[in-house]
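Why does this matter for the project? Reviewers at the last site visit asked to see concrete outputs rather than summary tables. In response, this paragraph embeds two records directly. Each consists of the residue sequence and, immediately after it, the corresponding structure tokens. Nothing has been edited or filtered.
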Amino acid sequence: MIVVALATNATIRAADTRIDVSKIIDKAGAESILEEPVNAPAPRNVDGSDGYYSKCNYYSTSGRKRLVLRVYQAAEGFDPQKELEAVAETAGAMRAISGIGDKARITSGVQAGLPSRVVMLYVVKGKSLVTIGISGVDDENLAAEKIKDTAQKIVSQL
């Protein structure tokens, strides 16, 4: 059996599988995380000159909460670690999280330059950078635990 693969984009790598983050964390999953009903999302999966992007935002029907999911799968010659370093330079206070991916950093609230009631998590695994944000939270510690669990689900698919 001979298999021939043609690619129009040089960013495709055999070791990487392009993922659709909205299929990993679907509407029901987002509702569980936000603890509120959410509107239908409008996910986007696109190729860029620096790699592949999968993006999805979930907004609660009340408009009070939002879940932001991003996965960047870097093309050859691009380094997701450098992307994380760039975020860390501008994000202010970030703390390391162990047990998720190769490197993970979390930040929250006004001390990190974010609006209050916002938690952001960044995870590098291999050639991928996962970004998860949740806003409108009443308890930043609970939100941090929820997005860590969410990150584990996404990272397990990389």
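We now turn to the second protein, recorded in exactly the same manner.
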Amino acid sequence: MARPPTRPLADYTTLTFDCYGTLIDWESGIWDAYQPLIAASGRVDITRAKALVSHAGLESAQQTATPGMLYPELLARVHGSFAHHCGIETTSEMDAGFGASIAHWPAFPDTADALRRLKQHYKLVILSNVDRAGFAASNAKLGVAFDAIYTAEDIGSYKPTRRNFEHMLERLEADHGVARDQILHTAQSLFHDHVPATAFGLARAWIDRQGLSKGGAWGATAEVPERPEVDFLFPTMAAMADAVEAEG
């Protein structure tokens, strides 16, 4: 999956990040947010693994169908679809509660420290499939000030749509003087990030939180038919920060 790097990590000036799945533990957040529905249903057969796979398909379909919908409303729709898919009853209050849950999704334990270390070497940029308010709640857990933040609310569509990457690249060059070859796109999701980043010719660092490179499960991230090659592969953000510092 990871080809031999053609350039050292120190050769880049800017790290562009996916947030949810890379910096924020969205799978734990999503699973926790489904608990009121599952508990009310009395079902014991809805496991974390099954719920996350179902969520991945439902969320991707909803993002394609309603690209301009704000993420909390989109999550509420997905919650209703998940209940219908499982054959259980939901309420508008449960749906809305799920939509508002993003503020409670935890950061991975290594994220804040790794970002502070990386901030000493790079500009840090967010390209995320959420709304501004949702990211602001998560940003409080991340421990750094990002140099630029681009959300689905700003762009009017969700990754992996080309428009999201086009917007990011245009704004980084116009507002920050960052050229495409200075960027290392850093993300967990092959579906949302590495496939489109490959199409745009960006260098890529895969933060393989799910252990997919070693046979792990896809979870809340939709599968891709063919895994793209990446320039760097790290199991965690801490491992990436270690590698940057090891280069001196």
